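step 3/5: co-fold with adenosine-5'-triphosphate
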Amino acid sequence: MARQARFETLELRGVGRTYGSQVALTGLDLTVRAGEFIALLGPSGCGKSTALNCLAGLIPLTDGQILVDGARVDTEPAERRDFGMVFQNYALFPHMSVWKNVSFGLEMHKVPRRDITPRVERALDLVHLREHARKLPAQLSGGQQQRVAIARVIALEPRLVLMDEPLSNLDAKLRLEMRTEIRRLHQELGLTTIYVTHDQEEALSMADRLVVLRDGRVQQVGTPEELHDEPANWHVADFMGFRNLLEATVEAVRDDGVVVAAGDIRLTGRALEEVTAGGRARVAIRPDDLRIAGPDEEPAENRVRAVVRVVEYRGREFALEATLGERVLHVRSAVAPAVGETVELAVDPSRALVYRDEGQPSQVEEALAEATA
Ligand SMILES: Nc1ncnc2c1ncn2[C@@H]1O[C@H](COP(=O)(O)OP(=O)(O)OP(=O)(O)O)[C@@H](O)[C@H]1O
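step 4/5: write tokens
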């Protein structure tokens, strides 16, 4: 098959997929620009693999359209889309050498013989595997196998690269190395990439834009900074590492902030969704935005007195858990108080994000409920 020209835009319009009465994905709208690195992010079962497989043409859509530069591709079979896929389990041919694994796709695509050798060489060079070309996949480490899978896709020069949790079978150190490697390849080759992961750090460090999914629906699309600083709702905040999610009642909505009460705690925060006095809310605070304040430090507002229960050393700082009645607060701190000590925790009102609460449990609460069931 002849290579198709790179595109300007890839558009998903109302893409959905149901399995009987089970909605795996619904109403996915997204416009991807040429050269972008997009991460589809969300917890297990949120529909990210479904979205990727719909794009790849491995499963048909039940709703919506996929367009490349305005022309529909969702009606085309997978092999006509010119999209390349890197799978979680590498999906290498075990009986073929590294070289053959990479050249095979080119042969299948009827690339002229004289072009195959330079393309395989270049792809293997890019992933630093040239000297392993004669080996079989079983003679390689997991990281090297994943590099072969990536080389195979690079050699095909597809107009879109799809990656489904490509690093989840690697150990932590290799995962970090391969993150940088994939990012470097993306920058060097400018391949438009859609990358599925449940790891928010991975997504934040690699992607130009992130799409956060939950229960098959898009929650937010934004740059890493946008998602990090201003999650659209408390579920996104939950997923983005705001470990403190206090259930609260809105006391007052003022120009300079929203006053909320969570048991004995009273805080002024910044509303990122419309909230009304008397309504339920969730206050989301990152562990590194809760700081231990000195007794005479000004201002004295936005303070919580809590008892330190756990102190864990984490390299340059400490991860603390402090309790206040039933509540547990997670704090990142440069200093380590003693276990049992009472501390004053302070949060800047702009860093206490206030959201509407419809009463669903958070990830942690769900996990606790499952564990005690
Ligand atoms: N073949 C299928 N038949 C029925 N339901 C399915 C099928 N494939 C997926 N689902 C359901 O669709 C929902 C989304 O699944 P999907 O695999 O896309 O999630 P995911 O976010 O990729 O999760 P994971 O990270 O665990 O792979 C889930 O509730 C899943 O059970």
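step 5/5: annotate
Residues 19, 22, 24, 42, 44-50, 198 surround adenosine-5'-triphosphate (CB under 6 Å).
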